[in-house]
């Protein structure tokens, strides 16, 4: 089962473990990771699961679909490594994945 390390904007870390085939968003929700809201429940409709994928891991996921790219562009502080956690499907190759969480706009 792959483990994911979430790092908040202020440096707090939290580890989550998930079954292969689960999304990064689901792993975060299952482990109470603050910063992943998932208001749409993972249907790629809201960008409240916006995250930053560690540079070394970007190519290990399928490329972002057009709708994801558009939603990320409306998220707070998008970066070149921004993705929606609901669209990141975990596999055994993601053991040790590092995911950053953006500061939330107030």
Task: Explain what this protein looks like in three dimensions.
By secondary structure, this protein is of the alpha+beta class. The protein has one domain (3-100): Ubiquitin-like (UB roll), CATH 3.10.20. It is 15% helix and 20% strand. The chain contains 2 helices and 5 strands; from the N terminus they run ββαβαββ. A 5-stranded mixed beta sheet has the order 2-1-5-3-4.
Note the topology.
Elements: E1 3-7, E2 13-17, H1 24-30, E3 50-53, H2 66-74, E4 82-84, E5 97-100
Parallel strand pairs: 1-5
Antiparallel strand pairs: 1-2, 3-4, 3-5
CATH topology: Ubiquitin-like (UB roll)
Report the structural category: alpha+beta
Report the helical percentage.
10-25%
Number of contiguous helices: 2
> How is the largest sheet built, in terms of strand order?
2-1-5-3-4
Short description:
This protein has 106 residues and is an alpha+beta fold.
């Amino acid at each position: 089962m792959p483990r994911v390390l979430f790092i908040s904007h202020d440096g707090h870390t939290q580890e989550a473990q998930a079954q292969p085939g689960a999304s990064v968003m689901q792993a975060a929700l299952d482990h109470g990771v603050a910063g992943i809201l998932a208001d749409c429940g993972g249907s790629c409709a809201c960008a409240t699961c916006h995250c930053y994928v560690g540079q070394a891991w970007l190519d290990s996921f399928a490329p972002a679909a057009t709708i994801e790219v558009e939603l990320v562009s409306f998220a707070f502080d998008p970066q070149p490594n921004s993705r929606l956690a609901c669209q990141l499907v975990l596999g055994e190759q993601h053991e040790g994945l590092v995911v950053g969480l953006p500061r939330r706009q107030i």
